[in-house]
Amino acid sequence: MPYDAIIIGGSYAGLSAALQLARARRKILVIDGGRRRNRFASHSHGFLTRDGETPDAIAAEARRQLMLYPTVEWQDAEATEASRTPSGFRITAGGLHHEARRLVLATGVIDHLPEIPGLAERWGKSIFHCPYCHGYELDQGRIGVIAVSPLSLHHALMLPDWGSTTLLLNDRFEPDGEQLAQLERRDVRIEPGAVTEISGKADVTLEYGKRMGFSGLFVMPRTEPSSPIATALGCEMEEGPMGPFVKTSPTKATSVEGVFACGDAARAAGSVALAVGDGAMAGAAAHQSLMFGSD
Ligand code: FAD
Ligand code: MG
Prior knowledge:
There is one protein chain. This protein is an alpha/beta fold. Helix content is 23%, strand content 30%. It has seven helices and 19 strands. Strands 1, 2, 3, 4, 5, 6 and 19 form a seven-stranded mixed beta sheet that branches. The chain has a five-stranded parallel beta sheet with strand order 8-15-9-10-11. Flavin-adenine dinucleotide binds at residues 8-14, 31-38, 40-41, 44-47, 78-79, 106-108, 111, 123-124, 130, 133, 226-227, 229, 263-265, 270-273, 275.
């Protein structure tokens, strides 16, 4: 007997999609590789009732509540293959083959961090990308924005609301006259030179030897889909400012019938709250298509 739906990715978006399907008494399988995007962060902020908890605690409680539903199965594994069958989809994960009538992709994205020594180990602790998630805790201290592309202009223009901001040009961005005026209107200082190292809490060393201390640093990494499964199934993609993501309808249907996508995998920029919202929509839409769609 095939599953009604397989959800690939068991983090916030996938858990939320699964909950809707479980509450519709559907037989589902969640397959999860356990590499949530925010696993590097000490705390998660901005999600109602769980503000300041660890990313793990939020997901673990959601999983506990989901697994109380008797029609839900869980596999801790990486889904490595997906293909169409006459009646739905066939998924391979951890050496097992599964079949399902519908598929929900909640596989998230991978962040490509700039290769600056000291950056990766501070990611999510004193180096962040989302001011709404981590800006408040910097207590209006000094903030540095490490430029990675012209997109860093927007990043730097936002951050003065959270603390006195310096844009470190890092040889990756040269503002023109109009951009310099925008930065000045927002009281953003500019510092030339490549960032060669990050040490201490958030201390930056520049190529010509100057060192600057900050309360926190921000950088906007390029993102890439965590899993090639959407592309392998032929789902249409969209290009966002940070990277590609799965194109979906307002009900989170992809261009491939029977496949839904939600969370960071299917939007230009995400958060826990948005992933949970998208997941709820994808789960309900997958259920609607089981009831009223064609097989
Ligand atoms: P993810 O949480 O990334 O989960 C995707 C899941 O799919 C993973 O478990 C992965 O292992 C699994 N997966 C992928 N491919 C496969 C496969 N082939 N087979 C099986 N499983 C697979 N947001 C906030 O709202 N507040 C914050 O404070 C916050 N802090 C952040 C800090 C950092 C450092 C970062 C990088 C992000 C932060 N975010 C925060 C953003 C937040 O992490 C994401 O928006 C959120 O995790 C998206 O949820 P998701 O379920 O779409 O994807
Ligand atoms: Mg998920």
